Amino acid sequence: MTKCKNITDPSNKRDKDRCYKDVAVVNRNFNICEKVEFISERIECYYAVAAANQDIGLCEKADVIYKDYTVDKERCYSDVAKAKQDETICTKISSDFKRSTCFWGVARVRKDVSLCEKVVYNKNDCYSSILK
């Protein structure tokens, strides 16, 4: 984190935020994300830490903390599902498109064409991407 603190040039605020995000992910520490200045980057940090920890509870936490902002909790679920290789998490996603994307992502990670059956959009692309 010292490396991140040493980024003091105001024009490099995004670099500093990315640095803290990287440290948070490596340490799997949700609280380090609080050091990220830009809200959108901070939320991205939470998603990345949730995926690193394979913990959808952190998606929920980010949603509660930033209820006044556009938090894509369903994308966070998808990231965790892929990291955990657990398609059951995809069922928590209400959007057909995002749920399909989640199943497809887990199918690719597991190289499991049977999950393509659960994909509503671009099912054939799902099969093709795995059977390559």
Please provide a brief summary of the model.
With 132 residues, the protein is mostly helical.
What keywords describe this structure?
0% strand; elongated; 132 residues; mainly alpha; 7 helices
Low-confidence stretches: none
Total beta strands? 0
Mean pLDDT metric: 91
How many structural domains?
A: 2
* First and last CA, distance: 41 Å
Number of DSSP helical runs: 7
Taking the sheet with the most strands, its summary is: none
Description:
The protein is an all-alpha fold and 132 residues long. It has two domains: 1-71, no CATH class; 81-132, no CATH class. Helices cover 61% and strands 0% of the residues. It has seven helices and no strands. It has helices spanning 2-5, 13-27, 39-53, 56-65, 73-84, 96-110, 123-131. Helix 2 (13-27) runs parallel beside helix 3 and helix 5 packs parallel to helix 6. The mean pLDDT is 91.
Topology record:
Blueprint: H1 2-5, H2 13-27, H3 39-53, H4 56-65, H5 73-84, H6 96-110, H7 123-131
Helix pairs in contact: 2-3, 3-4, 3-5, 4-5, 5-6
